[in-house]
Amino acid sequence: MHKKRMFIYCSLVSEAFIIGLLCISTFISCSKKSTSSAKDDNQLEYVTPEEVGYSSEKLADAEQFAEQSGYAAIMALYDGRVFFSWGEITKNYRCHSIRKPFLSALYGIHVEQGNIDLDATLAELNIDDIPPSLTPEEKQATVRDLLKSRSGVYHEAAAEDPIMIETRPERGSHAPGTFFYYNNWDFNALGTIFEQEIGTKIFEEFKRKIADPVGMEDFSIENCDYQYEPEKSIHPAYSFRMSARDMARFGVVYQKKGMWKDFRIIPGEWITESTTAYSIEDSTSGLSYGYMWKVFPEGSLLAEMVGYPGYFHTGIGVHALVIVPDLKLVVVERFDTDGEWIDPGDVGMELGMMIINARISD
Question: Across the chain, what does the average pLDDT equal?
Answer without folding.
Answer: 91
